[in-house]
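[Meeting: bench + compute handoff]

Bench side (C.D.) handed over the final construct sequence. Compute side (W.E.) agreed to return the predicted structure before the next meeting so the bench team could plan truncations. Sequence as handed over:
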Amino acid sequence: MTGHVYIVDGARTPFLKSRNTPGPFSASDLATAAAASLLARQPFAPEALDEVILGCASPSPDEVNIGRVVALRAGCGERVPGWTVMRNCASGMQALDSAIANIRTGRSGLVLAGGVDALSRAPLLFSDAMVRWLAGWYAAKTTGERLAALRRFRPAHLAPVIGIMKGLTDPVVGQLMGQTAENLAHIFDVSRADMDAFAARSHQRALAAGAAGHFDEIVPLIDRDGTLYRDDDGVREDSTPENLARLRPFFDRKYGRVTAGNSSQITDGAAWLVLASEAAVERHGLTPLGMIVDSEWAALDPAQMGLGPVHAATPLLARHGLGLADVDRWEINEAFAAQVIACLRAWEDEEYCRTQLGLDGAFGAVDEARLNVDGGAIALGHPVGASGARIVLHLLAVLRREHQRRGVAAICIGGGQGGAMLVEAMR
């Protein structure tokens, strides 16, 4: 079964930068706040949803099936199924794609889909050595056994394992995501100045967009102390090329070019979209904003995972007889400045396009005036599970604002994958 999948509405929280301490909101707090506000303005009751699908890369132990937790907390009732998907950086986009599949097969007509992560709350873990010691301690029955266990204890056992560092390290190639960005910088000769200029532009565009009111998809948050969070808080006026140039490389401290300043920020946030079939639109009297026309997933060398958008968007466009210049607006998630620049250069590289994409030559060039026009994750932040949904939501907002028709949202995925969606705004 086929059919149009319409975007009816969407909302997201402010993206709040991690400041080396647990943030004010859990992942379910963030997702519930955005969902409740979004559903409150719909002409249908939350109980009318057929399902809730939430992408999350790092749910807390007490929110493992966070999709169901949020569905209940947001007032969808006991009879609306809620479930969770995980595709690393594209978990939010995967939630949308899962909704699309169920809508097109007729299993669902009205779906709340999106993504969330509270990366500031990523856990600190015990090492294996500490866990083994604890197991021996709890197994000890006598005073003598406990004294023997105490003699085996070493202070080094208490050194924590940083959960987010484990999560951002590819277990197959043994590289942090930032190291894979360094790989691309080497392959495509992306200079430190290139990266810092791109990062500064992301902040400049985000600042201009905020001043112009272009982030009206944001739902403000209030914490338990009454503090209001209205805007993304990682955008900086002082992120200029000159200031960014002062930062030291983070992932390859001797020879590297990738810094904290030209990388995406570790962030907390949630984003949702309401998706509907044509029958659901008619049944509930909805006014669609646009539609998701098609999607594509791709895989590649995990050590070059940042090129995922190229490998996903190229066949997506080819399937519809489109070239890069036929896309009115682009949102490519800014995991790293080096990674986005490498994607742009890969499309212009004849050898790469022939050997890696199976094309006759270079695919073309992306007009950077059409790319991430309101900034991206370098300025706004990258709550891993939410970003794939955010870029689709904001892409549609940009298309409607600029009276444009067609856009592509694309994202790289840890583990060596890429995702892309072709979006059209309603005329």
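W.E. noted at the follow-up: DSSP finds 15 helices and 14 strands in the chain. C.D. will use this when planning the next construct.
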